[in-house]
Amino acid sequence: MSSDSSYYVPASSRMPIFMAFGLLLFVLGASFTMNNWGEEGSNAHWILIASFAVIWGTMFFWFGSVIKENDSGMYSGQLNQSFVWGMAWFIFSEVMFFFAFFLALGYVRLFAVPWLGGEGEKAITNILWPGFEAAWPLLVTPDNEQFPGAHHSMSIPELSKLHTWLPFWNTLCLVTSSGTIALAEAGLRKGNRTAFKLWMVATLSLGYIFVFLQGLEYYEAYSHMGLTLGAGIYGTTFFLLTGFHGFHVCLGAIILTIMTIRGFGGAFNDHDHFGLAAGSWYWHFVDVVWIFLVLVVYIF
Known about the structure:
Elements: H1 15-35, H2 44-71, H3 77-116, H4 125-128, H5 161-189, H6 193-224, H7 232-264, H8 274-299
Helix pairs in contact: 1-2, 3-7, 3-8, 5-6, 5-8, 6-7, 7-8
């Protein structure tokens, strides 16, 4: 047992090494898969699949050991406070992570593309690509023969009726899920475990629907709109921003799934549920990022 005056030091673990190895495989597998996509005989995707197996397996055993330590009373108030600060700084680092991508998109839209179109003191159109007209979304690239742009954009005002509903329902699902997880946490604080379980299941359902619709949107983009990672800077920034956000939604859904399973097993109470609170913070974070994404990627 741990007291408030003591600080629990966990035993040495190989889990960080396994996680680092899994992340290395993920980076290699993702890059090889994207660069060799569609090539006959390429086995790059197996590296990506192996990375997911290593990461998920490591998470399973690592989370399990942390839960056992907490349930056995090894953690003191001081250590629990360090968890709070750790999660806060982690979310801050994620804020800066996405800020860099939003900044890159802003630089491209406000400076680089206009310069290529002949605007400003740094205009270089007449030297490199005469006749190029700057516009966003950039469907006609400066060198459109070698690097063809997309046939259609994901901008909501320009989307056909077939595609408009995808970002709309995605937004509705994610924004609603922020409300349902808040209701779940409120139910737990009031001791109403039935409401807690009901709203957690609703949150997870909305989260996984979002992931499904995101995958359907990618299928539509690749199959019917010509919008791919190779479709110039517009395709690159679109998939960079929405893809990383989708990855974070998947991570948040995994965290909340674990919290839901623990909740159904009797874990958490009105004064001890930081695991759920941390997952809730993270989920609200991905919701706010998505709202900004909708504004800069789909609307403006």
